[in-house]
Amino acid sequence: IPRSACESVASACPVLDNVAVMLWIVIPQDPAGAARGGVLDWLVDLATQPGAVETLVAIAILSGFGLAFRSTLRWVETVRSRSAIEDYLLGVEQALSLDLQSARERLERVTQQDPDNQYARLLLGKVLLELGEPAQAHQQHSLLQHSFAVASPENELQLARALLATGRAQEAATTADAALARHKDHAGLTE
Predict the structure, then answer these.
(1) Are 60 and 66 in contact (CB under 8 A)?
(2) Rounded Cα gap, residues 46 and 54, in angstroms
(3) For the segment 10-48, what is each residue's pLDDT rounded down to a tens digit?
(4) Is 148 exposed, middle or buried (CB count within 10 Å of its CB: 0-12, 13-18, 19+)?
(5) Phi and psi dihedrals of 162, rounded to 5?
(6) What's the rounded Cα separation, in Å, for the pair 164 and 130?
(7) How many H helices and E strands in the chain?
(8) What is the pLDDT of residue 9?
(9) 6-10 — which CB contacts under 8 Å span 24+ positions?
(10) CA–CA separation, 187 and 191 (whole Å)
């Protein structure tokens, strides 16, 4: 391997600087000789170079640490995901049993842990409206509609209810009419 190739790798990623230089030192610099002797001879020559085995062991150890770190990150993410799902389901249970304040706290925690959880956000908006906090409910339903592009009739009607509760009757009527027009075939919209 030409030294210039190792140096270009090292300049592209400074962390690889020592590895690139070590590889340049370790790998035989006579590619024609390596080709003549075959791959087995090349490997034997590589193994007899000073520091070659140590370099390969160091690379293997670093790779092992990297894989272990990645595996640990995946495991932590899985645990967090399961925790968020558990919190969401407990929030649903609390909302259904009309323990609205506890449901609110739990669902807020879920949306903090998993901001993309649209179901938790929708239920949080319903709970907030039931608790008499229509402005916060409107915020959740608007976020679903505008940021997440959720076009569900349930969210649109909850948004209309939140608008009505905040005193914006005309906007609520427009939102409800638009939901009815878009989702004519949806059962339960006319209730």
Answers:
(1) no
(2) 12
(3) 455 555 555 555 555 555 555 554 445 677 787 777 778
(4) middle
(5) -65, -40
(6) 13
(7) 9, 0
(8) 47
(9) none
(10) 9
Task: Identify whether the C-beta of residue 166 lies closer than 8 Å to the C-beta of residue 134.
Answer: yes
Tokens of 70: 């990645």
Report the amino acid identity of residue 53. V
- Tell me which residue has tokens 């390596």: 34
- CB neighbour class for 102 (10 Å; exposed up to 12, middle 13-18, buried from 19): middle
Cα 4 to its chain centre, rounded Å, is 39
Please name the amino acid found at residue 181.
A
What residue type is assigned to position 81 of the chain?
S
C-alpha to C-alpha distances, 165 to 45, 51, 128, nearest whole angstrom = 81, 75, 11
Q: Which of 155, 159, 151, 158 is nearest to 182 (CA)?
A: 151
Task: Indicate the length of the chain as a whole number.
Answer: 191
Contact of 140 with 124, CB cutoff 8 Å: yes
